[in-house]
């Protein structure tokens, strides 16, 4: 055996898979060398691809997650706040209320030029692009850098989302929400809806939110009337509202004009404006800045009165009205409203000296004017300034109306075919005993003997004379003859509220103890002017919500409140008061007029109520302590002994009515009178107030003085009602002012007269000279001593009225 080792068999390589013998002659793959230096910083293509894929998955996933998680929220509080806009009947702005000066309008109420101007300024491709336009940001930056004007990087949709749904803070969260909401909104709303929303929520400076408020604030027009030049100016303001207001910042006019030119040129580029129109356009001049929400002057009064009217008549819910967005067209006519204010200033306020006369600080004025044919309130006067005197004097019900109530007594007499205690029909020629403190006959409540002004005795006078001179004794008796409950109902039928304070059935009702408002009285007198047909007064012509939805108004109803005969016969009597009685100042209007004066107890208020065929107006001058609000007498106001209904109130009425109807054709009354009322009885001869009063012509009842009612028998004053009326006369049409049987004009002491005190009778009328007494002059200002009436509810101490 050989000692050399024998060769051993080869074992298989454990490092290779079983059954996979290594290929003969194949070389082993060399390892990739490790990257060194800067090469280590470059990612491999595998890493790049993986990153891109993962990134895309995250973006897509994040987009879908964000799209589903971010919902369109409710509008923010600021975006939904609007002012309510109050307009005159002709559409001009009267006032705005609310914290935010915004009035939303539909796109159809925004001029196309204004729409195109905003698009040219903010988003020229709005109608063709998506809600999100990344290129817009690049374009905006480029335009700014090259001096073509500053342009927003957001689309109009994004800006609308920011204005309407989100807050204004610059945060990533807000931007993300804006992104997703814009995409959703673009899918849910049309481009027109989004543009409309944007135009109504954008801020234009001067406190104006929305293009309608901006159009009013800068140019005094509605958005539908904006020109291309005006629209371009407003569009320019969107970038820098305060800086581009060339009135507030004239030094910035060059920048504002540059921006305006950019917008105008953009409109030409897009084909929205012709080159010729562009060349002719000039930079518009905005009006001076005003505070459109200011409640000063008459505006605050009107806003509150109209708000109350809307709520009480169920037209708009109080809560809804508080949210704003209502465009309320009133019935007030601007020229008449201005004329009313001017008349009060000229005839009353300018005559006061509050530094020298304390009583002048008490003077207040109120009034209302109604179109008799429609019942529309065309003008009101409520006070010198809402921010100084808050109480609206046109609608307050706390001053006695005095003798302006007396015509309602006579109307009721004719309406109810009433008779005197002796069975005579009451008409303008019926004679009554006008003796001061004559006890009223036929009243079951007890003794009631009202005093005439200055305790004058007028003897036996016709109703027409008694109205001319406003004789308390006559009208208290007439109220009982008619029935004080019927008188009260007639006053309500004519237009007074059944809730009028102190409107109660008693003889004192005739002397005007009720405390109706000037507006109430104007409504009632308008019914007389309209031949007894009553239209419930209205203050509102039209109401729109959010510029789109018209709110339904109550149906206007008119009915025959009293017979035409009753209303027209009263008008005939009141025409005599203008021609021969205490309302003679109304002759200055230069038109046929009917009127009555009145004074409250202790001269705390003086009234003038009158009408032409076209206009019924009531004016009241009131006395009120500015600190305690207590009613105050007006003795000495304006430097006069007293303020009478025939003085300042009548002068205000005359100037206002003359100016309000200027240019209108003069209309005459077309009257259908009570039988016998077209013939005037001869003047009485036994009036005992003073000699020389024009009664010398005699009386148709020579024995009247010996057969009065003072004996308590309950018989009426002797004398035939209508004794001079031709038999069978059934009335007729009056075209000329009737003459009166009350003596010569101005005689017989036309003045106010006292009634019992203690919250009872006022009444009375006054002279037309604003403080002097042509019928005997003022006395000591007191009304006389105490008189025991013996009947509850009727005051006992007569005072001057």
| Secondary-structure-derived class | alpha+beta
Numbering strands along the chain, what is their spatial order in the largest sheet? Answer: 2-1-5-11-12
Portion in beta strands: 5-15%
Overall pLDDT: 78
- Residue share in helix: 25-40%
Q: Tell how many strands the DSSP assignment holds.
A: 20
Oligomer: single chain
Taking the sheet with the most strands, its summary is:
5 strands, mixed
Radius of gyration: 42 Å
| Overall geometric form | elongated
Low-confidence stretches: 14-21, 687-801
Cα-to-Cα separation, first versus last residue: 169 Å
Q: Count the helices. How many?
A: 21
Overview of the structural elements:
With 801 residues, the protein is an alpha+beta fold. It contains 21 helices and 20 strands. The strands form seven sheets. It has a five-stranded mixed beta sheet with strand order 2-1-5-11-12, covered by helices on one side. Strand 11 (540-545) and strand 12 (549-550) form a beta hairpin. Helix 15 packs antiparallel against helix 20. The longest helix is centred in the first third of the chain and has 25 residues, at 45-69. The radius of gyration is 42 Å and the shape is elongated. The N and C termini lie far apart (169 Å). Residues 740-749, 772-787 have a biased composition (Gly residues). Residues 1-35, 419-453, 678-801 are annotated as: Disordered. Residues 687-698 have a biased composition (Acidic residues). Residues 370-630 form the Penicillin-binding protein transpeptidase domain. Residues 714-739 have a biased composition (Low complexity).
